[in-house]
Amino acid sequence: MRELIAERAAKELAPYSIINLGIGIPTLVADYIDDDLHILHTENGMLGVTSVDEEHIDPLVVNAGKLPVGEAIAASYFSSADSFAMIRGGHIDVAILGALQIDSSGKIANWAIPGRDIIGVGGAMDLLEGAKKIIITTSHTSNDGSPKIVDKCTFPITSQRVAEIIITELAVFNWKGGRYELTELMGDATLEEVKSKTTANYSINEGLLLEGEKV
Amino acid sequence: MRELIAERAAKELAPYSIINLGIGIPTLVADYIDDDLHILHTENGMLGVTSVDEEHIDPLVVNAGKLPVGEAIAASYFSSADSFAMIRGGHIDVAILGALQIDSSGKIANWAIPGRDIIGVGGAMDLLEGAKKIIITTSHTSNDGSPKIVDKCTFPITSQRVAEIIITELAVFNWKGGRYELTELMGDATLEEVKSKTTANYSINEGLLLEGEKV
Amino acid sequence: MSLNKQTTIPAALENIKSGQTIMVGGFGLIGSPLSIIHYLTEHDVSELTVISNNVGEKGEGLGLLLRQGKLKKAIGSYFTSNRDVAKYYNEGKLELELLPQGTLAEAIRAGGAGIGGFYTKTAVGTDLAIGKEVKEIDGEKYLLQKGLKADVAIIKAWKADPLGNLVYYKTAQNFNPNMATAASYVIAEVDEIVELGELLPDEIITPHLYVDAIVKSEWILTKDGVKTK
Amino acid sequence: MSLNKQTTIPAALENIKSGQTIMVGGFGLIGSPLSIIHYLTEHDVSELTVISNNVGEKGEGLGLLLRQGKLKKAIGSYFTSNRDVAKYYNEGKLELELLPQGTLAEAIRAGGAGIGGFYTKTAVGTDLAIGKEVKEIDGEKYLLQKGLKADVAIIKAWKADPLGNLVYYKTAQNFNPNMATAASYVIAEVDEIVELGELLPDEIITPHLYVDAIVKSEWILTKDGVKTK
Question: Which GO terms describe its molecular function (chains A, B) (predicted)?
Fold first, then answer.
């Protein structure tokens, strides 16, 4: 399921875009992109991240999830301040991030859970604020089955900024005209299944509707 | 006269201090310092400035006055933003600057002349604000003979910050207890001569007074 | 990586249009994109606002564009060395915005780094503080300076790889790396284009994500002034 | 230049006193001054405020000082990975100040660059904006963040020359160059000290004027965790 989402997310990436991958499903996207066409940025201070073989692991070359990575050709390293200057300054084309909740207004909650201590935010707020385009990759529902795409986030939001695309194992949503539009069903998912597991307000792309359902 | 002032200013520099030299007399100070003991910074982006022979001039290696300079051992280059971060952030030990006027309150005017177009400031305000210590090197009077060390600057001031030391061809003043103290007479200068050419309020160091003049 | 950002100066200049704000690297003529400026003299454009430490020198560098009447406004720190600037300013042909050099450099960095504005102590209580917001932080007074951005930046670097990674030459670096971050379209004039991978990860000053076009220099600053290569 | 800033870790630690604010480089343990921290476990000091992206890891790096009760407060962006932090926080034994990672990095740079504060869009309208000043600049909302400074910074670099010029190793760079600028006393732990002149002017990341003391590393991060060299 996670692989399916990651593979689908990779298809959204324009050639030569500069991409930052969050922790979790987003990290898997690296397995589906063409190293010759896409450039990965990691906020701990590297542009040109690639995968690394077990035998070439350098404990001092890691991504933002502290996982070992490799160095692509023409890569560069820089300080944390310079790295976030890139992010906040709008120089990252796409950030692919996970989410705890996404709501009808396009807002994302992905850094804190009510009732638990709020003791970590990392680069989540900077990325959500600064990247030119946000793709959210997430399971459609929480472990307990409750919807993650909801009418209004009950978890603390990460930014006032809208996420352009949501990709789950059931559906792809695109932000359009002030709301999400369901543009694609993943695998065997049906409109009914998506509807039953989504409490957010969303429209359905005409192409997905049967003739009689169109308005 | 200019050389005399520059040579005297060089004596104020503690070993291993980081020094920025302004345009004019301050530039001459470079001729009197020990390259092995003092480190010159120039705000256009270099630490470790040294002199250069005619035959080794590189038109792209210059100081803030756009004059050719050389590269000392262990020198480094950096951007304008990084260079002024050093200045504004308090990482330059001493700035030696010229002045049009210095007044009783320790304020300096060295960037604009009333009646003329105000079209240049360069790094003067940053240096005066950020350097840990300011040494002003200047002729004691203007070309027309009028005092430059005055009661109140009539030219636009460069900063609210006080300059610690003034060195002219006649005298050395040190800022002490809220006013300048004349601490040294240069060459054959007399207390009378300094008094006649200075309209600022200043005190005189006891060592310079004859027994009967002491308070 | 097969992307190659190298292009010709005329092709890159299609991105510069009348009325735009252009950042121009350099400290006087040192580290200034002299070849791009030369082609700009033949490019049909006017009413430009330039953000640059100086307006070149008299009749050289940006000073050429001033004499052609292509500049509407200049934002910089030191216009004194090009005497034409005072003349055009007094004749009402050029607007000026004067900033302390450190404030100018920091404002450009801020513009590129997504910083809306910052507080500096530089110029507090001087004539350059007139009309600016003052704020007290931890008992000290600071001036607000907004970040600066541009439509296009034309900068000078030493070497580039085809992807647009840049390194600079000694004090010809100056404002160039900061300006590379602060414009929608960045044209880097370079003396040398090297193979991909030849610039080492540790020596790259401007990572390629900041650069849109790379052009080869044709005019350079020598001991004897500006010459064709 | 005969100045040599190399010293021993215990001698450098004489500059760290109880109640001070200390910046500590590193992203987790990567690029963290592990040897200095090790010696700090034996240094009589308490009530420290640390500014660091994390509080090391559980029982490692800065996490060692937390367990010794030497920390009063931590200012950082991500304390989640060291589970001890939540425990000490809940027991009232540790104060926390959480900042977005980019705001933290920029605040440290600002502190070192004489910038009193800056406006960032990051965190506007979130819980981390509570109690912070909001300002509208050119129609967009920004949050004010003050610059951060420290009494002492302990950082990790790769190589130093005796004068204190520093270069960093790949992603072990992270917060280190920024922290080098923002403290009254800067101690750089390095893996190698080279001859003066061996670090080239173009490769130096931290010019020597920022560095007060250089010490050799004794503990380093390996594939198998923190080990003595």
Answer: CoA-transferase activity
Interface residue of C108, C128, C174 to substitute, partner B, most B CBs within 10 Å? C174
Contact B90, C120 (CB under 8 A): no
Q: Which residues contact D201 (CB under 8 A, 6 or more apart)?
A: B48, B71, B75, B76, B77, C170
Q: Active site residue: B12, B43, B164, B169, which one?
A: B43
Nearest to D170 among A77, A122, A156 (CB): A77
Tell me if there are at least 3 CB pairs under 8 Å linking chains C and A.
Answer: yes
- Do the Cβ atoms of D120 and C106 come within 8 Å? no
Please report, for chain C, the start and end positions of each structural domain, with discontinuous segments joined by +: 9-228
Q: Which domain holds residue A134?
A: 2-207
CATH topology of domain C9-228: Glutaconate Coenzyme A-transferase (3.40.1080)
Among B20, B33, B61, B73, the residue to mutate for chain D (most D Cβ within 10 A):
B73
The predicted structure's pLDDT at residue A35: 85
In contact, B25 and B47? CB cutoff 8 Å: no
A65 located within any domain: yes
CB contact under 8 A, D209 and B39: yes
Q: Does residue A213 belong to any structural domain of this protein?
A: no
Handedness of CA B57, B59, B62, B65 (dihedral sign): positive
Q: Do D173 and A123 touch (CB under 8 A)?
A: no
In a domain, B215, yes or no: no
Q: Do A84 and D169 touch (CB under 8 A)?
A: no
Number of domains present in the structure of chain A:
1
- Number of other CB atoms surrounding residue A59 within 10 Å: 17
d(CA D61, CA D50): 12
Please report which residue ranges of chain D form alpha helices under DSSP H: 9-13, 34-40, 62-67, 83-90, 101-112, 176-179
What does DSSP assign to residue D222?
E
- HSE, CB side, 13 Å, CA atoms: give it for residue B5: 25
Residue type, A7: E
- Cα separation of D12 and D25, whole Å? 16
The answer to whether residue B195 scores a pLDDT higher than 60 is yes
Nearest CA in chain A to C206: A76
Mean pLDDT computed over every residue of chain A: 95
CATH number where B172 lies: 3.40.1080.10
Name residues of chain D where pLDDT drops below 70.
1
The model carries a pTM of 0.98
B55 has catalytic annotation: no
Which H, E and C letters describe B129-180, residue by residue?
HHCCEEEEECCCECCCCCECEECCCCCCCCCCCCCCEEECCCEEEEEECCEE
pLDDT per position as a tens digit, A169-209: 999 999 999 999 999 999 999 999 999 999 999 999 999 98
Q: Are B173 and B182 in contact (CB under 8 A)?
A: yes
CA distances from residue D179 to A44, A192, A209, C57 in whole angstroms, order as listed: 15, 54, 57, 38
| Separation of alpha carbons A134 and A180, rounded Å | 13
For chain D, what's the residue count? 229
B131 and B94 Cβ atoms separated by less than 8 Å: yes
**CB contacts, 8 Å: D163 with chain B:** 74
Which residues in C have their CB inside 8 Å of a CB on D? 106, 110, 113-122, 135, 137-138, 140, 142, 146, 167, 170, 201-203
Which residues in chain D are closer than 8 Å to A80, comparing Cβ atoms? Answer: 27, 53, 101, 104-105, 174-175, 178
Cα four-point dihedral sign A38, A43, A49, A52 = negative
